[in-house]
Q: What sequence folds into this?
């Protein structure tokens, strides 16, 4: 699957370093369309870098990253823009534009990248905000939203262009278990209703077990384990077992 | 020294990219108006107050000297020339560099640190075009207008000072101020502030947009924006005065 022809996303011997620090080293893995993969790993093992490589916010030093038929590491300009439109990205701290209201945050990509009329944009924004339970808050500024609301708002914005692939960087970080579970439910609903491919970076094993069809464990820049939750739990690698095991 | 050359090169390329970007669609009219409004609301009171005070101060100083030669009648003319040729453009540039330049540097650096710029790129929005180009255009357009306010308030301060000392009428003050004035004395120094505005917008945006030091980078970007913008305005002023004298020799009074 590493040639990317049958996968939504495929990493083919990808390496990435920052200065002398090698973050990813010759990493290969792939995700079929419509599947949910949770990436686990200790801090600094390249989980968030992996997401940024997928959406080409970073370029790999070596290797190829396939999104459908496109090697995103080599794309620029309109071609890259076209691939990015297939991908939604929920940032760790939501990354909402703090000078815009919640409505403006969501309407911005539609206004700039589609031919929709103002009425159609309003309709889409209202629908998506309703789906994430923020319909009454669209006039608020990001600074007026709680942590959970910001995550949901970030998720709503990531969904505005109807992406085929949704990347989520620690969607439950800083949230209580109930709110974290609500975010997970929203991700699962999206996957079930739209066959969206999910890539979720998380430290929350409970969340990973809820959301993931498969787990990918990164350690020291390499794939330490890959498979279903049950398969990964049987790993001989102690770090993998500690990361993937239930910590109740 | 190598670093200075490298920085100059990078800032120049950044400015060139912005200049070329300003001619590409979409033209970001809404963002430009938003930035103009932001610059105006932040800077206009500062410019008017500073101009008024500088006008009054200049009147005090020139009067105390010229009175010894019995030449107080030329005070309005000296003030008008000084303000329109140099004080207005230069002080406005420095005020905008301090007030707006630091703001642009800090805001863009904060957006970088909080991944808002990455967020924009992830949505296929050209963050450079959306964030940087409108700020540079707004600074370029705002500076000449703010300079006019500085000139006007400077002359107003000078007049009030003269009126308080000698009961000089407004008509006579204006006559003496502009009797030897030509348009070529007025518009080249005023329009040279477009270059100051472009420099402030480019330098401030550069430090904010390209930082990669997280929260620490916000303070650094704000400081670097002010220091380098202010220095660049003074250096550009030297160059632009020579250019103006070369292109408009009649303006060299």
A:
């Amino acid at each position: 699957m590493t040639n990317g022809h049958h996968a939504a996303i495929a990493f083919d011997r990808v390496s990435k370093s920052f200065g002398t620090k090698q973050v990813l080293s010759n990493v290969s893995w792939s995700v079929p369309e419509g599947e949910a993969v949770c990436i686990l790993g200790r801090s600094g093992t390249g989980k968030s870098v992996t997401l940024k490589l997928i959406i080409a916010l970073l370029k790999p030093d070596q290797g190829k990253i396939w999104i459908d038929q496109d090697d995103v590491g080599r794309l620029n300009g309109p071609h890259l823009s076209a691939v990015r439109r297939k991908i939604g990205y929920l940032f760790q701290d939501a990354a909402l534009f703090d000078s815009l209201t919640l409505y403006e945050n969501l309407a911005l990509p539609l206004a700039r990248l589609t031919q929709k009329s103002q009425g159609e944009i309003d309709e889409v924004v209202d629908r998506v905000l309703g789906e994430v339970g923020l319909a009454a808050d669209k006039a608020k500024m990001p600074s007026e939203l709680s942590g959970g609301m910001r995550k949901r708002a970030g998720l709503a914005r990531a969904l505005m262009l109807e992406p085929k692939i949704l990347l989520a960087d620690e969607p439950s970080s800083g949230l209580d278990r109930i709110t974290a579970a609500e975010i997970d439910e929203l991700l699962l609903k999206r996957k079930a209703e739209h066959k969206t491919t999910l890539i979720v970076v998380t430290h929350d094993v409970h969340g990973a077990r809820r959301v993931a069809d498969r787990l990918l464990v990164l350690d020291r820049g390499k794939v330490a384990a890959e498979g279903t939750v049950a398969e990964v739990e049987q790993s001989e690698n102690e770090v993998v077992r500690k990361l993937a095991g239930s910590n109740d | 020294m190598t670093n200075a050359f490298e920085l100059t090169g990078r800032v120049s390329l950044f400015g060139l990219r912005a200049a070329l970007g300003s001619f590409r669609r979409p033209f970001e009219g809404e963002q430009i108006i938003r930035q103009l409004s932001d610059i105006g609301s932040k800077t206009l009171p500062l410019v008017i107050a500073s101009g008024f005070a500088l006008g009054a101060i200049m009147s005090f100083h020139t009067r105390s000297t010229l009175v010894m030669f019995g030449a107080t009648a030329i005070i309005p003319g000296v003030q008008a020339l000084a303000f329109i040729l140099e004080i207005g453009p230069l002080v406005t540039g420095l005020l905008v560099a301090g007030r707006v330049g630091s703001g642009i540097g800090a805001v863009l650096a904060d957006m970088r640190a909080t991944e808002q710029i990455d967020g924009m790129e992830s949505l296929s929005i050209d963050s450079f075009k959306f964030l940087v180009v409108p700020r540079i255009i707004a600074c370029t357009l705002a500076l000449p207008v703010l300079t006019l306010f500085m000139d006007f308030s400077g002359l107003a301060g000078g007049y009030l000072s003269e009126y308080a000392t000698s009961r000089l009428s407004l008509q006579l003050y204006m006559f003496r101020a502009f009797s030897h004035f030509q348009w070529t004395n007025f518009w080249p120094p005023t329009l040279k502030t477009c270059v100051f505005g472009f420099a402030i917008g480019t330098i401030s945006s550069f430090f904010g947009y390209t930082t990669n030091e997280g929260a620490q980078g916000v303070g650094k970007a704000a400081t670097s924006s002010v220091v380098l913008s202010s220095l660049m305005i003074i250096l550009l002023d030297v160059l632009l005065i020579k250019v103006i004298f070369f292109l408009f020799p009649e303006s060299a009074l």
In short: The interface with chain B takes residues 52, 55, 57, 81-82, 84-85, 87-89, 91-93, 95-98, 108-109, 112-113, 157-158, 160-161 of chain A (CB under 8 Å). Confidence is low (pLDDT under 50) at residues 1-5 of chain A. The domain at 9-97+163-244 of chain A is CATH 3.40.50.300 (Rossmann fold). The two ends of chain A are 36 Å apart (CA to CA).
